[in-house]
Amino acid sequence: MLRISALRLLGRRGASRVSLSEDFSLRHYSSGPLGVRDDTRDSRAYFTTPIFYVNAAPHIGHLYSALLADALCRHHRLRVPSDAATGFSTGTDEHGLKIQQAAAAAGLAPSELCDRVSAQFQQLFREADISSTDFIRTTEARHRIAVQHFWGMLKARGLLYKGLYEGWYCASDECFLPEAKVTRQPGPSGDLCPVSLESGHPVSWTKEENYIFRLSQFREPLQQWLRGDPQAITPEPFHQTVLQWLEEELPDLSVSRRSSHLHWGIPVPGDDSQTIYVWLDALVNYLTVIGYPNTEFKSWWPNTSHIIGKDILKFHAIYWPALLLGAGMSPPYRIYVHSHWTVCGQKMSKSLGNVVDPRTCLDRYTVDGFRYFLLRQGVPSWDCDYYDEKVVKLLDSELADALGGLLNRCTANRINPSGIYPAFCTTCFPSEPGLVGPSGRAQAEDYALVSAVATLPKQVADHYDNFQIYKALEAVSSCVRQTNGFVQRHAPWKLNWESPVDAPWLGTVLHVALECLRVFGTLLQPVTPSLADRLLSRLGVSSTERSLGELHFLSRFYGHPSPFEGRRLGPETGVLFPRLDQSRSWLVKAHKT
């Protein structure tokens, strides 16, 4: 008997074996260079969320994962404006013991439960304006074909053997645990019960014959992969966490369950007595979506970025890359990891009754408002806290007052009666501060504003590349404040269009402010698509002028013609974003009366 950590695995006589000295290096298994994305890489990008378990209705954590992926995807489309260049998948994970048990408890067939809850996720993502190109369900026929082919690749390479597994299994987390990851806590009766040290969920002792994946042989290749690409897992603390895990023993992994115990899943090819482990099944979804096992998937896979929650890091950063290497493929290009949301300082829990319904929030704060809040306040490196007052304060301050107020000021009939993009006067605002003549009115702070907004698209792009969308939005918000300061400083409402002295400067102030608004609207498209559309439409920006390649900020300042100068503004689009505190106070008064 071969003892590996807390697992007891007994190889069946005649089972295929692979020498521990066999080369499982990245060089041997990779289909191409790893670790560095160079200029030869094509413009394709493929973003994925986790596929979400259908044992319960979606919550804001699920929506947050989807929004992060959606924003990354939409920003890539701004860079490479071609639908064929960007893929984005999400979906539902519908197999496993937990689903089987949840369906039985609800008095439903597993397929009925899956249909019901999967529909809830699809509805939520439609309402939240998630722009995915594919929604996959693991109960689909295309996925079964992909999983069974992937299994066959592992088997053909001698990486699967049948053995006796004896150890702890957590049905809630759908994972096997070594003894070191199990603790005892008082149960409902007061007796000490074994639970997962990490999740706190109950575990049970399991002894059965399963198929085993030779995970232990991939410890060094995984270390080589991660040390060769410090950004493979982002943010950096999670990268270090995985490297620390790999300093420990890496036991072989049971990748099937007895069918008599788990019937709701994909059967092992050629052995109906076994069902494929739910995590192996689920992870292959990322390949299914891009056409695996057909060769078309190869053009997408090197450019794959997974967006996941920190609770499933080990499955995506150790098990999945090892399985991919075993099947002859490279690990994903990036694994972006985010933390969780708490509610008023407490973990969301059904027992506490504090689970936040994301659809209620979308209705209460608007789709764009709640998207903005989650992506502006969510910091991937640590858990973030949700409470209603925080949402209202942020959205009123940054969207209603700062951004909406700026647009209203610059398009108001009293200040801009002609309803056009006014002309920019280069003598009032020359390209260099030292060139300001008698008619020049630009101040040092104005040049700082132009510089800040000119560099904003690059700054935002860098933040997206580093999975810091919250910093991208913080940078935009800072420039919005600067622009409001610019308008407040020069008070265009005090200037007179009829005055030959005032008119050139009045037009210049409005031109600069409108150009800043155009940049903000363009950069906010990945986060607040509907709001950004209304803003850009109000400015008269056509649909073909909204990519990063067409941005060209303040062309006249830099000595180039402006396609917007003299252009009529778009039709009135109403309030850009309504103040929420007034709505809430009205609702409170209505309730009291």
TrEMBL record:
Keyword Membrane carried by entry: no
Stored SUPFAM superfamilies: Anticodon-binding domain of a subclass of class I aminoacyl-tRNA synthetases (SSF47323), Nucleotidylyl transferase (SSF52374)
Root EC class: ligase
Molecular function as annotated in GO: ATP binding; methionine-tRNA ligase activity
Keyword terms: Aminoacyl-tRNA synthetase, ATP-binding, Ligase, Mitochondrion, Nucleotide-binding, Protein biosynthesis, Transit peptide
Location in or out of the cell: Mitochondrion matrix
Residue ranges constituting the Methionyl/Leucyl tRNA synthetase domain according to the UniProt record: 46-410
UniProt family annotation: Belongs to the class-I aminoacyl-tRNA synthetase family.
Record protein name field: Methionine--tRNA ligase, mitochondrial
Gene: MARS2
